[in-house]
Design goal:
heterodimer; A: mainly beta; Immunoglobulin-like; six-stranded mixed beta sheet; five-stranded antiparallel beta sheet; globular; B: mainly beta; seven-stranded mixed beta sheet; 49% strand
């Protein structure tokens, strides 16, 4: 059974600082997704990572995938308040588009 | 831009009552998913459809939950009877096929009292 673990579960940052969220998973998969969720809202797709070594960047966020280590990272550069949200990673189990989600990382960026 | 539609957005119901949620996927998307997200947790897949057929419903509590997608387009998720533990956000998602990115709808927030 696929397990997806995120850490930290809660992250309080100062504006302008850098930090990384980690996503570990337990079985082989080449497809990993990162989502953002604002309170009471649905999931917004951030990144789709489809191969080992994939790296994608959008604004202050950069995601990478190491399938051999079964690890993905979401790096935040020079955080701003608008990045405050909950971030989820999700891994495709059995290549059937059955996503298993991590517990989420609550990010709070303080001014 | 095409979006997944869900209704109602909010539903309050009493324990033991029946409740139903509706989802209209993005036009042309063959695969439809229902997820349940308990507050403070990640979404959990309940059921996956490919056209009108169920691909996976292994996590669907079949004693009280049912889902259908009769014509392979929109879908209904029903709970009967509702229990307190069913309070959650119910998310619908769709994708063009089994290998493509999923797009999520706005969700239905269910509160069971």
């Amino acid at each position: 059974e696929l397990k997806v673990e995120q850490n930290p579960l809660f992250l309080s940052m100062q504006e302008g600082k850098n930090y990384t969220i980690y996503c570990n998973y337990s079985t082989t998969s080449d497809r990993l997704y990162w989502y953002r969720q604002d309170p009471g809202k649905s999931l917004e797709s951030l990144f789709v990572l489809l191969s080992n070594g994939a790296v994608k960047q959008e604004g202050r966020l950069m995601a990478s995938l190491d399938t051999k280590a079964r690890l993905s990272t979401l790096h935040i550069t020079a955080a701003v308040h608008d990045l405050s949200a909950t971030y989820f990673c999700a891994v495709d189990e059995e290549y059937g588009n059955k996503l298993v989600f991590g517990a989420g990382t609550i990010l709070r960026v303080k001014s | 831009e095409a979006e997944v539609a869900q209704s109602p957005r909010y539903k309050i119901t009493e324990k033991s009552q029946a409740v139903a949620f509706w989802c209209d996927p993005i036009s042309g998307h063959a695969t439809l998913y229902w997820y349940r997200q308990i507050l403070g947790q990640g979404p959990e897949l309940l059921v996956q459809f490919q056209d009108e057929s169920v691909v996976d419903d292994s996590q669907l509590p079949k004693d009280r939950f049912s889902a259908e997608r009769l014509k392979g387009v929109d879908s209904t998720l029903k709970i009967q009877p509702a229990e307190l533990g069913d309070s959650a956000m119910y998310l619908c998602a769709s994708s063009p096929d089994l290998v493509y990115e999923q797009y999520f709808g706005p969700g239905t927030r269910l509160t069971v009292t």
